[in-house]
């Protein structure tokens, strides 16, 4: 494996700003962005077999079964653009998913560089997520923190902004419960391997990004030594 290759996992509750950090990291490094939530939403929008399988789980805020998600991630990891580094967002969410990823990495002779945990309190998450609105093309706004110029309309293409079904308050609570239940184990899992790095997601996106970059720079130096 090239010492410069970055294989990263972003971990954090829904609404922690992982999408924003992912966008910025991809401006810094050539990383394939693999976001299982986006992939599943797209499959649903296209009405594929995968989308139909995922639908009922997603609407309840439940996890889609491991074998379904593992299948789509392993397939995606095999694509050309993921060979020089990737950024996983929303995967793994369970220990069996983490085990499947570890097995695939071992098979490919690669390894995870770091697991970036963006921490934010539940109270703040509910505030952030319940105000989140998205355009048809997936651009994200917030009614208070990042409002569009014209209420309810996307700045870029003017389409109507909507609330994701699973951003509604009851579903957010269910997603947070599920997140804590599952992620506590993943945090221990990656901490035990010395891969976990923690970031304070209550800080501004720029500060979080700066901290992540500093951490990655150190890791790269260590890897090159
Ligand atoms: P996200 O956009 O990452 O919050 O994902 C939205 C929804 O997709 C989740 O609430 C789950 O129903 C499903 N999902 C995404 N990634 C996974 C995963 N790794 N394992 C199981 N379900 C997932």
Describe the protein's architecture and organization:
The strands form 2 sheets. A 5-stranded parallel beta sheet has the order 2-3-1-4-7, with helices on both faces. A hairpin with a 5-residue loop joins β5 (132-134) and β6. It has helices spanning 18-28, 36-46, 49-60, 66-77, 95-108, 122-130, 169-192, 205-224, and strands at 6-11, 32-35, 85-89, 114-119, 132-134, 140-142, 196-200. α2 packs across α3 (49-60) and α6 packs across α7. The two termini are 14 Å apart. The mean pLDDT is 92. With 225 residues, the protein is an alpha/beta fold. The protein has 8 helices and 7 strands; from the N terminus they run βαβαααβαβαββαβα. Bound molecules: adenosine monophosphate (AMP). Adenosine monophosphate is lined by residues 14, 36-37, 40, 57-58, 61-64, 69, 90-91, 93, 97, 166, 175.
Structural class determined from secondary elements? alpha/beta
* SS field, number of helical segments: 8
Percent in strands: 5-15%
The total of beta strands comes to 7
Tell me the major beta sheet. 5 strands, parallel
List cofactors, ions and other ligands.
Answer: adenosine monophosphate
What's this, in brief?
With 225 residues, the chain is an alpha/beta fold.
Topology (SSEs and partners):
Elements: E1 6-11, H1 18-28, E2 32-35, H2 36-46, H3 49-60, H4 66-77, E3 85-89, H5 95-108, E4 114-119, H6 122-130, E5 132-134, E6 140-142, H7 169-192, E7 196-200, H8 205-224
Parallel strand pairs: 1-3, 1-4, 2-3, 4-7
Antiparallel strand pairs: 5-6
Helix pairs in contact: 1-8, 2-3, 4-5, 6-7
